[in-house]
Amino acid sequence: MVLKIVKYPEPVLQQPGEPVTEFDEDLRKLVADMFETMYASQGIGLAAPQVGVSRRVTVIDISQGKDPAQKLVLINPEVISNQGKQYEEEGCLSFPEIREKVSRAAKVRIRAQDEKGKWFEMDGEELLSRAFQHEIDHLDGILFIFRMSALKRNLNLRKIRKMQSEGDW
Ligand SMILES: [Zn+2]
Known about the structure:
Elements: H1 25-40, E1 45-47, E2 57-60, E3 72-83, E4 86-90, E5 100-104, E6 107-113, E7 119-125, H2 126-139, H3 150-165
The protein binds zinc ion.
């Protein structure tokens, strides 16, 4: 089922998600719906707060459905180490039409649980590293506009207000 993606400034996007403790059928249904929703919007990552669910769940697929081996489910994920810097353009399904360069770590190692609750560690670099950081930020209630410089953040907030007033947001 394709879920509705909430947009900034929906409050659920700015609050930390609750840790997942039950690895049950409800969780698997949420994950399946999140993949469906992400693919329907041509995204490479989606966090549960973006579909109005304040839980520490995110799905990532940087192949956008082209390579099943790249489908990732991260439950209760955290960054455990990072290295270097990258500065590349980023977007977010909760900020349609907003794209901006954001500074991130070049490489990260994360730990997370899978759908069955099993912990694993994984390394990511370049786009995957960026997706890990962007999605884990969502689970902490941190949005990518708050990773931009104040100047760019204000420009984008103004653009959003203009779209809102014109009914395009
Ligand atoms: Zn996002």
